[in-house]
Amino acid sequence: MLCPLVGDGRSHRTSLRNEAPGHTRRNGYMQKTMRWSAAVGAGFTLALGLVSPVAAGAAAPAAPTSATAAAARVQLPADWQARRAAAAERLGVEESPAAQVVRDAIDPGDYACGPTEFRNYIRSVLQGLSPEEMQFLDESGALDFPTYDAFVFGTGADPRYGLDAEYRQQLVRTFRDGQRFWDVKSGDIQLLGLNGSVLRDEARLTRLLVVVYGLEEADAAAYAAAVVAAVAQIPALQGGDNPIFSLNAFAFSGEGDPDPLFSSIPDKIVMGDGLNDAFEHMGIADVGPRAVLAHEFGHHVQFENDLFDSPLTGAEATRRTELMADALATYQLTHKRGLALNAKRVLQAERSFYEVGDCSFASDGHHGTPNQRMRASEWGAGLAASARKQGHILPSMTVAQRFDAVLPQLVAPDAP
Fold first, then answer.
1. If you average pLDDT over every residue of the chain, what do you get?
2. In this predicted model, what pLDDT tens digit does every residue of 146-188 receive, in sequence order?
3. Disordered: where is this region (predicted)?
């Protein structure tokens, strides 16, 4: 199951978020990222016809003479959008936080929800892109490729998937603390990074297009060359290093998945470099990355304890697992025998959850509103504080059961 920072079932479990539609141990969570390119496109008014399909076997287009021409002249493989939809369905991925920024409309109903600093940050990293270049991002799949590549092929031993060097120490410490703190099997989880380097590596991108999208080798190689060339010629994309390509984090477990592709993938937590950049922009880089990693580790606690199973369905089921992961994370971060971070500072930095909260109440990928996520984090901090004197760590199932008991209060309508 994939659980993005941004599925239900028992085969493959994922948590992208970015940290989340369904929870199938795979289909759970590429928490919010995996469907993001399609969702980003839905929010923009773009000129149509600038990216066009090409018959299988066609040669790669000639090198464009400008950034806009590079985007406009990329030709999509035959039935490309159908292949993208099939890949997203197979991987069980969700839309990224970027998608939430560009939605045409949100009807919050009874809930208080509005613009956030995180969404403003996403807008800032998209500045400088022309409508044609926006459409390239929407139609080409380029926003999906880094996440899919890390999901399927990334390993902790491969330096191409290394953690952001500036944050490696705090992330590794948080990860190891989670392994020690929680009473679940976690020694097989790999920790790795997410970046846009696949967008300048034709060989890796070709492999992805063959394995995940089912393209023939020659067609995959031609399309990979066209995408790499376009990314290189659009200055705002920074050769794949624009944070928009790695603005996500997710947890994954493929244990028991009947699909051999997923059952062969090791359990992992993937942390996107773009999130670190966002947290720097928001002034919470001291705690934000650790909070997200602890959230993703919380999804592995859920995987091991079968906590994705509940009477809830659809958006309510996903919201429950996301809010529970928020609570588990804050419990670990602030507990005396966890990371023992200052609770006040952690809750201030829990904007890393607050800002990723959404108001898409009907979506199966709904993670909870910012206010709901903040209440879940406050509950986790309070639970840790109640054990401060004795330093006792509650069993993970006890924490989960207590959380379920207060969930109705956490999700109660908050609009005046």
1. 80
2. 999 999 999 999 999 999 999 999 999 999 999 999 999 999 9
3. 1-26
Per-residue DSSP letter, 412:
S
What pLDDT sits at residue 28? 43
* Helix then strand then coil, % of the chain, to nearest 5: 50, 10, 40
> Region 16-32: what's the mean pLDDT?
39
User: What confidence tier does 18 reach under pLDDT thresholds 50, 70, 90?
Assistant: very low
Handedness of CA 244, 247, 252, 257 (dihedral sign): negative
Beta strands in 263-367 (DSSP E): 268-272
Angle (deg, nearest 10), helices 145-153 and 80-91:
50
Q: Which of 403, 409, 411, 412 shows the shortest CA–CA distance to 381?
A: 403
Q: Which tokens in the block code for residue 168?
A: 């490696």
Q: What angle do CA 46, 50, 56 make, to 5 degrees?
A: 130
Tokens of 191: 């920790």
**Cα–Cα distance for residue pair 86/94, rounded to 1 Å:** 13
Q: Beta strand pairing status for 190-194 and 8-14?
A: unpaired
d(CA 193, CA 198): 13
- CB atoms closer than 10 angstroms to residue 144: 28
Q: Describe the crossing of helices 314-334 and 396-410 by its angle, rounded to 10 degrees.
A: 120
